[in-house]
Amino acid sequence: MTPMKLSPSSVPLLDIRGLKTWYPIKKGVLARTVGHVRAVDGVDLTLARGETLGIVGESGCGKSTLARTVLRLESPREGTIHVNGIDVLRVRGAALHAYRRTVQVVFQDPHASLNPRHTVLDILTEAMLAHGLVTRDNRGAAAVRLLADVGLPGDMLDRYPHAFSGGQRQRLCIARALALEPQLLICDEAVSALDLSVRAQVLNLLEELQEKRKLAYLFITHDIGVVQHIADRIAVMYLGVIVETGPAQAVLSEPAHPYTQLLLRAVPKIGVPLPEETDGPSEPVRRRPRIGCPFAPRCPLADDTCRAAAPVLKPSSSDPDHLVACFKA
Fold first, then answer.
1. Residue 283 — very low, low, confident or very high, per pLDDT cuts 50/70/90?
2. Considering only CA atoms, which of 173, 217, 188, 238 is closest in space to residue 64?
3. Cβ count near 216 (within 10 Å)
4. Does the N-terminal or the C-terminal CB of the chain have fewer CB atoms within 10 Å?
5. Residue 15: which of 216, 211, 177 has the closest Cα?
6. Which helix (H) or strand (E) holds 212?
7. 311-324: pLDDT as tens digits
């Protein structure tokens, strides 16, 4: 089984259009659907080969649901996801099996994402055996090469996950994701559970691997400081929609959306919260207004126009590649 074939360079590696992933809210003895949690609610994104796109937003904004939908772990309500020009929401059987080689993931918690009953050798080679990339006779050499790629010694193949530190476990998770030689690596809060010093080491490792293997990263985080270090472009997500996107330097130096400005303002001052909804705190995705801008209940600039209609992404005045969904920008 081979990975999905490359398309012409003019076609983005990842192209998402109108993606919606909703979860039903059920009530009553008959569990009738009375509403939906609109975790992802009309997202358009593109990612080029070898590029890093940082998805930034607070908990509950839909970042991880977006990642799980791209991975085919969740089924969207509508929209399309194309990888190398192929609609991956339509692939089945052998084609879906091949897609698993193209896109891999590194999850947030390295302890929870490693099977405690498997040795390092089993963890690194299980998927390779399933895809026919190695045999049981030569899998040890392949595992040693993967460990070397992530800066770990090759004499740990017989150890179990509990024998490693958090940073070492995350390196194992990265090695496992690289085992199938993917083109796109989704990093879902991949460094948020690590100490600051270890976080920097893992970020540097990801940059080295990207250069060496020509990887594209969909890097999901709530920490703007992290994407400032690693991202080429940034997309800011709020309540299931993208409210601002553009080159990392443009978004960070000239944030156009009030939500992006608040996120950046909170970075140097630990413990400074964002303003809450005016009618009391609640689960953010459930409290998205039915009409108008999703950020309007928390925005200091909101007026009747913002509450009456939802803005769409449009180029900012300074950069045509810097898009913002705000009537006030």
1. very low
2. 188
3. 23
4. N
5. 216
6. helix 196-213
7. 999 998 778 899 99
